[in-house]
Amino acid sequence: MPETVVLDATRATTISQILVEVVSASNRLTRVAARRTGNTESPALLRTLSTLIASGPMRIGELAVESRVAQPTMTKLVRTLGEREWVRRIADTADARAWQIAVTKKGERALEEWRESMGAALLPVFADLSDEEADVLARAAAILHARIAGEIGSAASVTGPASSVVEEGAAR
Amino acid sequence: MPETVVLDATRATTISQILVEVVSASNRLTRVAARRTGNTESPALLRTLSTLIASGPMRIGELAVESRVAQPTMTKLVRTLGEREWVRRIADTADARAWQIAVTKKGERALEEWRESMGAALLPVFADLSDEEADVLARAAAILHARIAGEIGSAASVTGPASSVVEEGAAR
DNA sequence: GAATATGCATAGCTGTGCTATATAATTGAC
DNA sequence: GTCAATTATATAGCACAGCTATGCATATTC
Q: Could you say which residues form the signal peptide (chains A, B) (predicted)?
């Protein structure tokens, strides 16, 4: 196995190029999806919801890290989500500065409806995928999800049990 | 092969779900990429550039369709691209209302640099992909690109030869 | 040549993202 | 136990990408 360094450099280049193609394809797919669904749904809100559903209630700061946005951005998103009653804020008994953010039933339904409408909107473009192509897409999504989930050292999902049930507005 | 209808419905559901997973993964990947690159580059500008490079000079309206944005959005993007000297506007001799938008060398370089920095930024997260995983991602990107390109009836790339070489600001 | 259609620009809004900074609570040092 | 430093969220204010509605100029059609 000679010239390992050269081989590795080549391989890194190849992987980089593939990643760029994936990002580029993602970028376009996002636009196609936005236009076909009529653009009424917000990716950021749904991303936040699905993070919460996947990992359970967590603090705003943790949510910001998981969702890859700055903390003030997440504060805004959580406010909007709260106004729609898709999440509720639960006081954190261990730290009066913090809140646990939890998805409501309504929020779960909203995400589910979004997934249905997104699937329906994109289906016509992809309906005649071969089984093999469909499999490739499914595996690619799984690979991306796994890598992205693993990208953060630890984060979240460690917070769960410490929260109380005091709703916002109640005496603290 | 009995119950074709039921089977097809099931298959449609499966494909829909896969597509939703792909969109969801894309959405997250976009955020990871934005954060890791330091977020200085704008996806919309680069999407426009790469469309122009792939399909050659075209009108603002065509570019809007290809890039899946509304026409006023594209007008703004083209203005920004022009200010950066990444594109130039060429008068369309066949129609005085229209412009042909063409990428400059500077624009090509900007896209190339973006691709390099994006690849470098994401590589650490994906460096230890197996050859097989890398292949799955590459094929998924190709499938998405092909479908998205095919989604529009015809559009663009039919416009090329009709344009002149009169630069903006020159007598029209 | 007047009416209609088309291509682009402008105005003005919303939402998502950012940084810098404020406020309040917690933690740590002494 | 109090004061300083740190931490969690909120607020302010900005930029940009997206949209719809609409205006303006040029083409096209009858």
A: none
Within-domain flag for B7: yes
CA–C1' gap, A168 and C17, in angstroms: 27
User: What CATH number is given to the structural domain containing B60?
Assistant: 1.10.10.10
**For A133, which of B43, B68, B143 is closest by C-beta distance?**
B143
Whether residue A167 lies inside any domain: the answer is no
The pTM assigned to this predicted structure is 0.82
Q: For an interface test with B, which of A7, A10, A18 has the most B Cβ atoms less than 10 Å from its Cβ?
A: A18
3-state secondary structure (DSSP) of residue B144: helix
A142 within 8 A of B18, measured Cβ to Cβ: no
pLDDT of residue A148 exceeding 60 = yes
Domain that holds residue B133: 41-122+129-162
Residue A42 CB neighbour total at 10 angstroms: 14
